[in-house]
Amino acid sequence: MFGLLDPRIWLAALILSAVAFGGGFWKGHNHGVSMERATWLTAQAEADKLARKVAADRQARVDVAMADAARREGRLRADARNAAAALQRLRDSIGTTVYTGQTPGDATTARTSPVGELLEACGRELVEVGRAADGHVSDLQTLIQAWPR
User: Fold this and answer.
1) Quick one: which of 99, 101, 93, 98 has its CA closest to 119?
2) Which residue, among 87, 90, 82, has the nearest Cα to 124 in the 3D structure?
């Protein structure tokens, strides 16, 4: 009834082959996609883990740098207080200096007053410049310590 040369047999065989090939291709394609997706998700998880570790390390460096900066700030404040106290001692010593010379008392006072004022102005400026310079050095040290490597 049906011969080997019957076009219906060839057509059925062709359709069956196309369906089998298409089903295999579809299954293989889906398997490949799922494998690639799994590989990508694994790589993404590892990258996220590494990024969290790097961020934690950087934050730890910043925390250490900030703690060091706080300690330096305390030392700088103490140094500024010591400088102000030394300046006050100099002012007091100039104010109590007695000149024993040929000049009368009013002339001595007139002579020591500008020196005291000059010393006070220079001392204030020196303390302020020193405080600013120490602050800049401290900021620089903090930035160097906290900078990512």
Assistant:
1) 93
2) 87
Token pair in block for residue 83 = 């400088």
Tokens, residue 129: 């410049």
Q: How far apart are CA 37 and CA 62, in angstroms?
A: 37
Q: 72: closest CA among 124, 131, 126, 149?
A: 131
Predicted TM-score (pTM) of the model is 0.54
pLDDT digits (tens, 9 = 90+) for 21-34: 877 777 877 787 78
The count of other CB atoms within 10 Å of the CB of residue 8 is: 8
Q: What's the Cα-to-Cα distance from 116 to each of 70, 85, 104, 107, rounded to whole Å?
A: 35, 15, 19, 14
Task: Please tell me the distance from the alpha carbon of residue 34 to that of residue 25, in angstroms, as a whole number.
Answer: 14
